[in-house]
Amino acid sequence: MQKISLHFISLALGTISTFLLLIAFIAEYKFSILPCSLCIYERYVYGVLAGLSVLNCFIKNRKIIYLQLIALTVGAALSFYHVGVESHWWKGLESCSGSFNLSLSDKMTTQQKVEILRQKLSNAPVVRCDEVSWRVFGISATIWNLLVFMGLTGIFGYFVQKSTNS
């Protein structure tokens, strides 16, 4: 059986990450499916994976492979947290719920209080993390994302482990 290069696997991971980002942007800009704040964080992970893959094309260093594995693990953990928020297993971040803590002092003028309220409302997210925004084949996109991260982490981790032992 032919040995598969870790650098090839890294490039494949970057290609898959770029493709998944493309799907997310098409969903957002073509079909107006807006992402919540956790979705944005998960996109950052895919961007980091793609960037590390490009970097690995120029600097073939095993540390980059390990950084990709760490990024995949972070992405899987973040996705699991997102699934938990969406499934109401636990409460999400303040930016996920559409609510915010309004800390007003009695020493503030009405003008200051109104300005703080205006700022909070203008920065409030439009999309909640604890609601399903869209489904594919009846399964939440958040769960699909978790499955993708877990699958990629498992496959990439297998190849990293296999190359370490050989």
Q: Extract low-pLDDT stretches.
A: none
Oligomer: single chain
Order of helices and strands: HHHHHEEH
**Cross-sheet strand order for the largest sheet:** 1-2
Helix and strand content put the structural class at mainly alpha
- CATH class, named Mainly Alpha
- Please give the CATH architecture: Up-down Bundle
What fold name goes in the CATH topology slot? Bromodomain-like
Envelope shape: elongated
Compute the number of helices.
6
Average pLDDT: 85
| Major beta-sheet overview | 2 strands, antiparallel
Assess the beta-strand content as a share of residues.
under 5%
Number of domains: 1
What's the total count of β strands?
Answer: 2
CATH superfamily label = DsbB-like
| Radius of gyration from the alpha-carbon trace, in angstroms | 20 Å
Quick summary of this structure?
This protein has 166 residues and is mainly alpha-helical. 69% of the residues lie in helices and 2% in strands. Strands 1-2 form a two-stranded antiparallel sheet.
